[in-house]
Amino acid sequence: MKALLAGLLLAGATAVAGADACPSPADVTQAHLLGLWRAEFEGLPQGATLLLERHPEYAQSLRGAINRNGGRGLVAGDIEDGALTLEESADGRRIDAAWLGDVVEGSCGREIRGSWQPQDDRPARSFVLRKL
Question: CA-CA distance, 47 to 38, in Å (whole number)?
């Protein structure tokens, strides 16, 4: 009976530890990125909020929305080996900006840093994405 109880306790502890495990950047998947994120841009006073969801057509990709102080747009992208690539569009047809970032080591997939590059003549900006 003690052995059975000890086995059940160990199994429960392992399940809890697995649920709380912190993935390395290379192990972060689309599932880790689903939800609300806050973006801050170097040199810009206002950030943005992103909602990332599963892409309905591409199983491991992301699709979602971005809100910049009331201005709305769409985003779509992928995560692979800790590298995030997002494309941003105001109208859903033309790409207005590209996001290239890396999951921060030790952040458990909850922080991404990189470069946001508008397609017009504006300069690239460093960004930080933090999961809300």
Answer: 7
CA angle at 86 for the pair 90 and 100, rounded to the nearest 5°: 125
* Residues 6-56: tens digit of each pLDDT: 443 444 444 444 556 899 999 999 999 999 999 999 999 999 999 999 999
Give the residue from 51, 44, 20, 45 showing the smallest Cα distance to 132: 51
Query: What is the 8-class DSSP label of residue 26?
Result: G
Q: How far apart are CA 99 and CA 84, in angstroms?
A: 8
**Residue 26 vs residues 63, 76, 82, 92, 101: alpha-carbon distances, Å:** 20, 20, 4, 29, 13
Q: What is the pTM of this model?
A: 0.83
pLDDT digits (tens, 9 = 90+) for 53-80: 999 999 899 999 999 989 999 999 999 9
CA distances to 3, 16, 47 from 9, in Å: 10, 11, 46
All structural domains of the chain, each given as residue ranges with its CATH number in brackets, are 22-131 (2.40.128.120)
